[in-house]
Write a structure and sequence with these properties.
The complex is a heterodimer.
Chain A: E1 4-7, E2 10-13, E3 19-25, E4 31-38, E5 42-49, E6 56-57, E7 65-68, E8 74-78, E9 87-94, E10 102-103, E11 107-111
Parallel strand pairs in A: 2-11
Antiparallel strand pairs in A: 1-3, 3-8, 4-5, 4-9, 5-6, 7-8, 9-10, 9-11
Chain B: E1 4-5, E2 10-14, E3 19-25, E4 32-38, E5 45-51, E6 56-59, E7 62-67, E8 72-77, E9 86-94, E10 97-100, E11 104-109
Parallel strand pairs in B: 2-11
Antiparallel strand pairs in B: 1-3, 3-8, 4-5, 4-9, 6-7, 7-8, 9-10, 9-11
The chains are: A mainly beta, B mainly beta.
């Protein structure tokens, strides 16, 4: 079991460029999440998907879009990157009504 | 407005002593409370949790306490070990949403 995998691990973008962060889990989990971690701010929820076919906004959704491609995959898209989106992005998943989440290793994104 | 606060950014403790990490929240809507541990360049990993209907949960060296009237959550690690050195996040749940604290960096000195 690979758990939760994220690609890429690192990315540098110029302002205005677009990119998609990929996340996949092989644990048959229903719910998937995207967070960003910034210094002094902890982890903040961007979007989540409670089940295949549904997505909902979290605390900080502006500037992002998501796609729940199937039960395994949940992608995060930046259409026009801004320096304020420089952050470490974590994907997570959880099973059913259990509360603990399993996190991927993160993607470090820098927007110049 | 930050709904979950960890007011101590860092904490240093001698090996073998107790580590106490604290977390305060402002909203009574949260129904489940968790602690995660994070090493550099890795994702957070789940440590221990507690339901809002309980006030204490223990798992080996780790104990979580919940004081709902004070809106306060704490994690006790005893005895502390050097391998416990990491950043600890509290996380509070309401429905499908989770709110994380800002983290406390724990250093256990051998």
């Amino acid at each position: 079991n690979a758990g939760v995998t994220q690609t890429p691990k690192f990315q540098v973008l110029k302002t205005g460029q677009s990119m998609t962060l990929q996340c996949a889990q092989d644990m048959n989990h229903n719910s998937m999440y995207w967070y960003r971690q910034d210094p002094g701010m902890g982890l903040r929820l961007i979007y989540y998907s409670a089940s295949e076919g549904t997505t909902d906004k979290g605390e900080v959704p502006n500037g992002y879009n998501v796609s729940r491609l199937n039960k395994r995959e949940f992608s995060l898209r930046l259409e026009s990157a801004a320096p304020s989106q420089t952050s470490v992005y974590f994907c997570a998943s959880r099973f059913g009504q259990l509360y603990e989440q399993y996190f991927g290793p993160g993607t470090r994104l820098t927007v110049t | 407005d930050q709904q979950v606060k960890q007011n101590s950014p860092s904490l240093s403790v001698q090996e073998g002593r107790i580590s106490i990490l604290n977390c305060d929240y402002t909203n009574s809507m949260f129904d489940y409370f968790l602690w995660y541990k994070k090493y550099p360049a890795e994702g957070p990993t789940f440590l221990i949790s507690i339901s809002s209907i309980k006030d204490k949960n223990e798992d080996g060296r780790f104990t979580v306490f919940l004081n709902k009237s004070a809106k306060h959550l704490s994690l006790h690690i005893v005895p502390s070990q050097p391998g416990d050195s990491a950043v600890y996040f509290c996380a509070l749940s309401t429905g499908n949403q989770f709110y994380f604290g800002t983290g406390t960096s724990l250093t256990v000195i051998p």
